[in-house]
Amino acid sequence: MTDGTTRVFTWEADARINVRNLGGEIVIEANAAGLKTLAGHLLTLAQDGTPDGAHLHLEESNGLEDGSARLVLERCDDA
What we know:
Elements: E1 17-21, E2 26-30, H1 32-46, E3 55-58, E4 71-74
Antiparallel strand pairs: 1-2, 3-4
């Protein structure tokens, strides 16, 4: 919930997402369910009424594969 706006982030069954930091680039590897999950998360953040700064933290304990780099998806309307 951000500024009184609740957004629900859903996960596809069997989603696997791995984020690797290779220094000069970030690689996001995912199976089909993982890609659909990420797409859904981005569409959720893009919904009308979602405030600037709304974000979702993804890490090993929150949806990413073991050994993944942390990933933050954030809405920024000033960019």
